[in-house]
Amino acid sequence: MKSFFSLAAVLLLLNSCGNKGVPYDAAGNFEADEVIVSAQQNGEILSLQTQEGATLRIGDTVGRIDVKIPTLQKDQVEASIAALQQKTSTPAEKNLLVRKQLEVQESQLEQLLREQQRTTNLVKEDAATRKQLDDLNSQVDQMRKQISATKQQMSLDDYNTSVQNRTVMSEKAPLEISAAQYAEQIRKGLIINPINGTVLTRYALAGELATIGKPLYKIANTDTIWLRAYADGTQLPQIRLGQQVQVRIDQGKKDYKNYKGTITWISDKSEFTPKTIQTKNERANLVYAVKIKVVNDGYIKIGMYGEALWSH
Questions:
Q1: For the segment 8-36, what is each residue's pLDDT rounded down to a tens digit?
Q2: Looking at the domain 35-67+190-220, which fold is it?
Q3: N or C, where is the chain less crowded by C-beta within 10 Å?
Q4: pTM for this predicted structure
Q5: Of 25, 94, 23, 39, nearest to 205 (Cα)?
């Protein structure tokens, strides 16, 4: 019986120290921020140049969805906007005949004024009758009234033209908004990669029909990765946000690969120990999740087991 308890104590000690006899404070699995890129437009996927394991940069155009219909709709709206310009006119264009008429009337008035002055001089010398001068005065007055009426007509035409143009161009703003909406739909036909990272899973292929919200591929930035470890309540006083800790992964059968890590999050609620996680104290049923940020050199993979040390 004594040897049995000694063996059990040794096994418990080894378990608390890790699988290689080196102590650790918390253990867990590595995870990364994963982004599922979805279609933002309906239509056939014309191209999707993503392969699982491929490295993409933010802003890369990785595919294209057919946007023939919104393209035609945009062309139609732009044609309607161009047609509006043809419906408008300037006062000079519309009043061309009236302006020519005014020029003729003003020329006639000048001629009448000269004749009026000549006749006035002749009357003073008794070379013309008073009736001739009165007739010229009447013609001058009549011509001035005609010129005044013509100018009023031009002003009225200018006003009417302005009102007509405003009425026609009031249709332009809604059409421009429609054109902008179609342009946005066309832009969303391009599949733009949102983050730097590695493609984890591809969900669609070229030739398939895409609908808005359909997943196309999943990508994660594995340059920076997080170890989600679990610590029991007795360890909480030893850790804080921003604290530098040591993180390690298995390297071969008898060695570890070490990294520097930073604690970025500590859960404020306890949870039951996940079945896949070994804690330092196996008797601890309730643990606290801790996220440790690690700069990845390419050897750490999502889901890989890792250990954290902060008290050694």
A1: 333 333 344 444 556 888 999 999 999 99
A2: OB fold (Dihydrolipoamide Acetyltransferase, E2P) (2.40.50)
A3: N
A4: 0.62
A5: 39
Structure tokens at 296: 């990845």
Cβ pair 247, 227 in contact under 8 A: yes
Beta strand ranges found along 124-243 (DSSP E): 190-192, 197-202, 209-210, 215-220, 224-232
Write the DSSP symbol of residue 59: T
Amino acid at 249: I
- Token pair 């031009």 is found at 154
Quick one: tokens of 141?
A: 């007055």
pLDDT in tens, 221-244: 999 999 999 988 888 889 999 999
Residue found by looking up tokens 């909406």 in the block = 181
**223 touches 55 (CB < 8 A):** no
Structure tokens at 99: 């302006």
| Whole-number Å distance between alpha carbons of 267 and 58 | 31
Q: Where do the domains of the chain lie? A: 26-32+222-310, 35-67+190-220, 74-185
The class of domain 26-32+222-310 in CATH terms is mainly beta
C-alpha 250/C-alpha 259 separation (Å) is 12
Q: Find the helix packing angle between 68-87 and 172-187, rounded to 10°.
A: 160
